[in-house]
Amino acid sequence: MTADFTNPGTTLMTDLHRAGGLAALVCAATYIFGFAFLFAVLLPAGFGIDGAEAEATLAAIAGARGAVTLWYFVIYVVNALALAILAAALAERIAIASPALGRLTFGFGIVWTVLVLGAGMVMNVGLGRVLPLHEAGDPAALELWRVVDLVENGLGGGNEIAGGAWALALGIAGLVTGRLPKALCWGGLVIGASGLLTVLPGIGEVPGAVFGLGYIVWFLGAGVVLLRGRSARSGAPA
C-alpha cells in the first residue's frame, strides 16, 4: 500500500510535520548556541574569524580543541541533519497545494543541507590533519589551515546563497499556496534577500547579521507552525 502524501489527515504526514517542527526548533537552538559560544567562549580565547591571522587562530583552536570541535559539530552537523527533516516537512506542506512548488522548495533545502553538512565534514577532517602538524611546530600547518578555512567558508560560511535561495523559495511558495503564514513568508523573503546580498563585496556585515539572526526567529516560527499543524489559508489541520 502506498501512503497518500497529499492527504493532510494521514498519520505519516502528521508525524512528518511534527518531526519538522521539532527539527526547526533544533535549527534555532544550533544558531543560538553558535552565536553564544562564539562570543562567550571562542572569541575571548583568541579564535579569529573573517581574515584573522591564521597562526593566532590555530593557537586558540589548539588551546580549546574540544570546545571548537563541539562548536563546529553543532553548528554544521547537527544543524544540517535537522535542516534535512525541516526541508522535507515544509516541502510536504507546500505540496498539498502545489506539488511542483513543494519539490522546488525541497530541492533548494537539500542543496543547502548538503553544503552545511559538507562544511562540517571538512572542518572535522581538517582539524584532525592540521592540529597535529601545528603541535609539532610544522609550518605546513598554517598553509593547510588556510586551505581548510577557505573550503569551509566556500561551503558554509563565506556567503549565504543556498540558505537565501531556500528562504526565498519558501516565502514565494507560501504566499502563492497559502500553506504558510504570511509573516513567515515575508520573513523568508527578507532573510533570503539578505543571504543573497552577502555575495556583494564591500557591503558590510549587516546582510549576514540579518540572515543569521533572522533565521533564528524564522526557525522558531516555522517550528510553532508545524507543531500546531494548521493551514494558514483554511485553518484545517495540515
UniProtKB/TrEMBL annotation:
**Keywords on record:** Membrane, Transmembrane, Transmembrane helix
Where would you find the membrane-spanning parts of this chain? 22-49, 69-91, 103-123, 161-177, 184-203, 209-227
Organism lineage reads as: Bacteria, Pseudomonadati, Pseudomonadota, Alphaproteobacteria, Rhodobacterales
Instruction: Write the protein's name.
Output: DUF4386 family protein
